């Protein structure tokens, strides 16, 4: 029976726009998250977030106290490169040098996401991912990162949740809906950008690199062959599409069939597949985010399905695609306070499916539970529900490892509280409470939650206390 590795990367995760704040400080330029106009009512925007830009040192100190072996965060492209001046932004580069150096000083391995939903608005105005120019800009950005951090950072993640960006694109690009054809053309360009980035990383450093899609096992709602077909279809469109391209270098037939039937076939130019198939452009591991499984059934010909391809939706919002699948709730699963299903066994199922399909090391880059947390009179936060969620998932993780899954690390969402993608800071995920609300910035002080002490023990015992 395989055991958890001694060098297992126990850590936590975050993303630049959700944690940093300082949105226009020291030469940072706006990303699509800063120019977004449709912030849901009653929730905060990302201008101050958890103010990590000014609290990063004490935040790292909290991670050190928890015993983190790794910290997965993203670099804001708009902080390190100025499109206005067409040159690197030294102050922005310095910020991440300081953060990385502080982590390394405490033997915390930085795991860096290059791009987490925050495309420079400058590029968006020039067509965003629909323009092939963005592919070249991403390659240029990769070189800048390698020149600066290539010798310090051993683990890189290219694009966070490319699949959710395609499925819920409107939410990421400031609510501006694109046609299905354009969305999948953007998606193709992201695959090319990712392949070029992987090659550059392999050429310019000894680091390892992987994608970071949101992967989750898909269940059929019943044992009818039709529901099973819907599940096979959805898992290919939602999951394998995003791993088959970088790992196998090809588009799977089910994804292609969908594009064909939706009259949305992408334009693959001569040489594109060579870029994707370059031996240096292959991932060393698969980074993946897991929250909960999905359940689908065959579609009803008399129903009108609202496509998820544009709008304010998240990865758990059910949607349907006529003749392909309809996402439904799974009555066997409990739900979080924010109505997301909870499926620890599904976590194991997901890892087993990925391992048998790709046989690559896996790195968990997100898993977690959003809930309403409050400070009590003694400045403590009793988030036992979070401990229960993690305990259940870690039990399954240990079983998956025992069965042979090569998992190299677990970096749950999130290290400290930050702003949810579209539900404000009221939906908290952290081991550390940040004292602010959506309406009131308060003092932004940091307080360890109950889960902080629990996770510290998990890391200290390398999971033996689970
Ligand atoms: C993932 C994203 O989809 O899920 C994160 O990578 C996000 O950016 C997380 O915050 C949780 O989703 P939400 O909608 O609750 O913020």
Automatic annotation (TrEMBL):
<dbReference type="GO" id="GO:0005829">
    <property type="term" value="C:cytosol"/>
</dbReference>
<keyword id="KW-0378">Hydrolase</keyword>
<feature type="active site" description="Nucleophile">
    <location>
        <position position="366"/>
    </location>
</feature>
<dbReference type="InterPro" id="IPR018120">
    <property type="entry name" value="Glyco_hydro_1_AS"/>
</dbReference>
<dbReference type="InterPro" id="IPR001360">
    <property type="entry name" value="Glyco_hydro_1"/>
</dbReference>
<dbReference type="GO" id="GO:0016052">
    <property type="term" value="P:carbohydrate catabolic process"/>
</dbReference>
<feature type="compositionally biased region" description="Basic and acidic residues">
    <location>
        <begin position="25"/>
        <end position="40"/>
    </location>
</feature>
<dbReference type="InterPro" id="IPR017853">
    <property type="entry name" value="GH"/>
</dbReference>
<keyword id="KW-0326">Glycosidase</keyword>
<dbReference type="Pfam" id="PF00232">
    <property type="entry name" value="Glyco_hydro_1"/>
</dbReference>
<dbReference type="GO" id="GO:0008422">
    <property type="term" value="F:beta-glucosidase activity"/>
</dbReference>
<feature type="region of interest" description="Disordered">
    <location>
        <begin position="19"/>
        <end position="40"/>
    </location>
</feature>
<comment type="similarity">
    <text>Belongs to the glycosyl hydrolase 1 family.</text>
</comment>
<dbReference type="InterPro" id="IPR033132">
    <property type="entry name" value="GH_1_N_CS"/>
</dbReference>
<protein>
    <submittedName>
        <fullName>6-phospho-beta-glucosidase</fullName>
    </submittedName>
</protein>
């Amino acid at each position: 029976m395989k055991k958890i590795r001694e060098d297992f990367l126990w850590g936590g995760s975050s993303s630049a726009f959700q944690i940093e704040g300082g949105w226009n400080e020291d030469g940072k330029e706006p990303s699509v998250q800063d120019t977004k106009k449709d912030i849901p009512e009653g929730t905060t925007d990302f201008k101050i977030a958890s103010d990590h830009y000014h609290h990063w040192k004490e935040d790292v100190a909290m991670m050190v106290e928890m015993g983190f072996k790794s910290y997965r965060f993203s670099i804001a492209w708009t902080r390190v490169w100025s499109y206005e001046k067409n040159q690197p932004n030294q102050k922005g580069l310095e910020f991440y040098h300081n953060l990385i150096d502080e982590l390394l000083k405490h033997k915390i391995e930085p795991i860096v996401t290059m791009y987490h939903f925050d495309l420079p608005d400058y590029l968006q105005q020039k067509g965003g991912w629909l323009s092939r120019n963005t592919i070249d800009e991403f390659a240029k950005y990769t070189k800048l990162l390698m020149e600066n951090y290539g010798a310090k950072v051993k683990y890189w993640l290219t694009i966070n949740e490319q699949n959710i960006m395609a499925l819920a694109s409107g939410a990421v690009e400031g609510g501006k809906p694109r046609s299905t054809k354009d969305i999948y053309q953007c998606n193709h360009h992201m695959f090319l950008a990712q392949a070029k980035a992987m090659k550059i990383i392999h050429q310019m450093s000894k680091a390892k690199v992987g994608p970071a899609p949101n992967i989750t096992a898909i269940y059929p709602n019943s044992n009818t062959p039709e529901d099973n077909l819907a599940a096979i279809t959805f898992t290919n469109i939602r999951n394998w599409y995003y791993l088959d391209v970088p790992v196998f270098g090809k588009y799977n037939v089910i994804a292609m069939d969908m594009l064909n039937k939706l009259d949305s076939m992408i334009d693959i130019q001569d040489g594109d597949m060579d870029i994707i198939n370059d031996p240096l452009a292959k991932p060393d591991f698969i980074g993946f985010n897991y929250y909960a499984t999905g359940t689908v059934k065959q579609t009803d010909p008399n129903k009108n399905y609202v496509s998820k391809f544009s709008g304010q939706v998240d990865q758990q919002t059910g949607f349907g695609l006529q003749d392909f699948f309809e996402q439904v709730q799974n009555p066997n699963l409990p739900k979080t306070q924010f109505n997301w299903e909870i499926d620890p066994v599904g976590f194991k199922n997901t890892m087993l499916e990925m391992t048998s399909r790709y046989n690559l090391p896996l790195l968990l880059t997100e898993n977690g539970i959003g809930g309403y947390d409050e400070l009590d009179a003694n400045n403590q936060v009793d988030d036992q529900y979070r401990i229960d969620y993690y305990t259940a998932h870690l039990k399954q993780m240990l079983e998956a490892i025992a069965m042979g899954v090569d998992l190299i690390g677990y970096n749950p969402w999130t290290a400290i509280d930050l702003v949810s993608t579209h539900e404000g800071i009221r939906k908290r995920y952290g081991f550390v409470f940040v004292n602010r609300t959506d309406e009131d910035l308060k003092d932004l002080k940091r307080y360890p939650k109950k889960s902080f002490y629990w996770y510290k023990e998990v890391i200290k015992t390398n999971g033996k206390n689970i």
